[in-house]
Write a structure and sequence with these properties.
The chain has about 190 residues and is mainly α. It has a single domain, classed as Tetracycline Repressor, domain 2. It has helices at about 10-25, 30-35, 40-50, 50-75, 80-90, 105-110, 115-145, 150-170, 175-185. Helix 5 runs antiparallel to helix 9 (about 175-185), helix 6 packs across helix 7 and helix 7 crosses helix 8 (about 150-170). The radius of gyration is 19 Å and the shape is elongated. The relative contact order is 0.11.
């Protein structure tokens, strides 16, 4: 007879997300996961599979959470420019309660050349963000808020590249004025 889980799967998965986000995949040991998640090793394997399978689930959960947060922050904005700015500012408006940077970008840097499954997830998540930026740019161009001087797809690629760089930079500096200045300069292209 199967036993009921003695832990909340969502809660322990979120703990794994935070651990992988702060330490990376390679540095996170099974011992770290067991201690941080507060579950027995056997229960972890039974519920999530091996470390790699758990990491893939954590990466998916992270992306869902970030996507929901972005959607909630921009859904009521009528200005495409302001929605894009909000996405950029979310990267630098971090608190001490979460690790700096982005788990997806960290994974791209750490695993993309070594792990085809991780690379595929990263590329899919990057494409989602780029598509969102393209939708916002197209909307802004349709309303006349954003110039049609640049192709929306190419402009979204440029902005995505800048956003990714910003996600890396927040791991190395707390200079908010510098980060805001970078956002202002990057988004000046929308004028």
């Amino acid at each position: 007879m199967a036993r009921n889980k003695e832990f909340d799967v969502d809660t322990v998965l979120q703990k794994a997300v935070r651990l992988f986000w702060s330490q990376g995949y390679e540095k996170t040991s099974m011992k770290d996961l067991v201690e941080t998640m507060g579950v027995h090793k056997r229960s972890m394997y039974d519920t999530f599979g091996d470390k790699h399978a758990l990491f893939m689930q954590a990466l998916e959960r992270y992306n869902e959470s970030v996507g929901a947060s972005i959607d909630a922050r921009i859904q009521d904005q009528t200005s495409a420019k302001q929605a894009i700015r909000t996405i950029f500012e979310m990267v630098i408006n971090v608190d001490d309660a979460r690790p700096p940077g982005c788990l997806v970008v960290n994974t791209a840097c750490e695993l993309s050349l070594l792990d085809p499954e991780a690379a595929a997830k990263v590329n899919a998540y990057f494409t989602e963000t780029e598509s969102l930026l393209c939708e916002l740019i197209t909307h802004g161009q349709d309303t006349g808020e954003i110039s049609r001087h640049y192709d929306a797809v190419k402009l979204s690629q440029y902005l995505f590249n800048s956003l990714t760089g910003l996600r890396v930079l927040v791991k190395t500096t707390n200079d908010r004025q510098k980060l805001k200045s970078i956002i202002d300069m990057t988004l000046a292209i929308l004028d």
